[in-house]
RNA sequence: GGAGAGGUGGCAGAGCUGGUCGAAUGCGUCGGUCUUGAAAACCGAAGUGCCCUCACGGGUACCGUGGGUUCGAAUCCCACCCUCUCCGCCA
């Protein structure tokens, strides 16, 4: 949710962000402003009536206590009349509140000035690291390598659950476990507190981080208990402090957590979804920061560095993009993507998305802090980044590490964590 | 899942035979007096959201959440959520 004061003071900026992000209808801004004006008028009227009701009640009280019902009768009659009006106005305010909130939830976060405006082709490549491997043979895509070594069983996953829910077998499974451990260790070294979180969350949490109502169809919904499977650990980790006022001295708060992630990926089909490229269930280590607003862009860079360190630990060539406005979601003010080079497919695969949400999530989730003793609570800024998502990392490791004899060599740091340095 | 108890301000804990209750009291916090300084003692301050106001200030709502009864609800009724105790079940 954006700041209502910003909407009132600078609606043009809000509209421009909507247009640049290509999200929503800019007319929503005017609708929200209109609802806001109506609501304030209604609240003022309601408060006046409530005051009158209180006055009458305080006059009636002593009379009733003294048994002077007759004297109280006309006042009671008045009070009943006011009560009816109060009820009416309450309903009006309730409706306007709901409408305004709905409109506000439709308005995406504003952009940081450094975000390039445009569509996907305006994404800015900032940095490239590592050398793409070269081969004196035709490198295979990871799904063929995985099949050859029995690392991932897509068919049986499809039988047991459905497409996009693979089994990892043997060294494939051990690799997952080693990567999760390695990523959590790296985050721990960087100062993050490790968290094991619930992987089912309630509706309020979905709203808090912005998955609801915007991306309703993307989460698996457990209807029996009205809970949602997490699409990322960002949801539980950020909602951990929902409706809290944090101690200023505790900031910044840094959490890392591993969870399986569940995404319906409704509407995404095509050749780029083969193998491990896009799954309904996958593993990811997520990094989350709660910070003071004035420091959030420094933290964005620090968080980015944390994610890059993880890729570099694996020796995978990668590049960093600053996402253009059109590629940003509802909630982000600025996002960097990290993409690793996947030699068998000859393409870049997104493995991390590092974002500053400024106060957008904090306002929805009501996470605040008190800047100093006695000061008013303010919203924190929240940030998060993958550190990292596993499947495409595994894809790149298999494709980049493949040898002429069909075996796969693992990078040293991973070999150490996994307990083996070669597959096949 | 069954039976019972309970959810009050930063914490603890009254109030719950409805009527200036945003709410006693204690602890903690902050300011002051005293002291060379500190402690103790004493005095005082201090919640959050929303609305009106340039401001000073004022109004209103909030005692788990949402409804209801009533002229009036922290106090009564209903539903839900959560915590605790006992029983059952169980990795």
Count the strands?
Answer: 18
Beta-strand share of residues:
15-25%
Largest sheet: spatial strand order: 1-11-12-13-16-10-9-4
Helical residue percent band: 40-55%
If you average the pLDDT, what whole number results? Answer: 93
- Identify low-pLDDT runs: none
Number of helices: 13
The SS-based structural class is: alpha+beta
Termini Cα gap = 51 Å
Cα shape: elongated
Q: Give a short account of the largest sheet.
A: 8 strands, mixed
Radius of gyration: 27 Å
What does this structure look like?
This protein has helices at 4-9, 11-21, 27-65, 69-106, 142-148, 154-160, 171-189, 203-209, 234-239, 296-313, 360-365, 390-401, 412-418, and strands at 124-129, 152-153, 167-168, 193-195, 200-201, 221-222, 227-229, 244-246, 253-262, 281-291, 318-322, 334-342, 347-356, 367-369, 378-379, 381-389, 408-409, 422-423. The mean pLDDT is 93. The strands form 5 sheets. The protein has an 8-stranded mixed beta sheet with strand order 1-11-12-13-16-10-9-4. The chain has a 3-stranded antiparallel beta sheet with strand order 5-7-6. It is elongated and about 100 Å long. It has 424 residues and is of the alpha+beta class. 43% of the residues lie in helices and 20% in strands. The protein contains 13 helices and 18 strands. The longest helix has 39 residues, at 27-65.
Notable traits:
8-stranded mixed sheet, alpha+beta, 18 strands, single chain, RNA-binding, 424 residues
How are the SSEs placed, and which strands pair?
Blueprint: H1 4-9, H2 11-21, H3 27-65, H4 69-106, E1 124-129, H5 142-148, E2 152-153, H6 154-160, E3 167-168, H7 171-189, E4 193-195, E5 200-201, H8 203-209, E6 221-222, E7 227-229, H9 234-239, E8 244-246, E9 253-262, E10 281-291, H10 296-313, E11 318-322, E12 334-342, E13 347-356, H11 360-365, E14 367-369, E15 378-379, E16 381-389, H12 390-401, E17 408-409, H13 412-418, E18 422-423
Parallel strand pairs: 4-9, 8-14
Antiparallel strand pairs: 1-11, 2-3, 5-7, 6-7, 9-10, 10-16, 11-12, 12-13, 13-16, 14-15, 17-18
Helix pairs in contact: 3-4, 5-12, 7-13
The structure holds one RNA strand of 91 nucleotides.
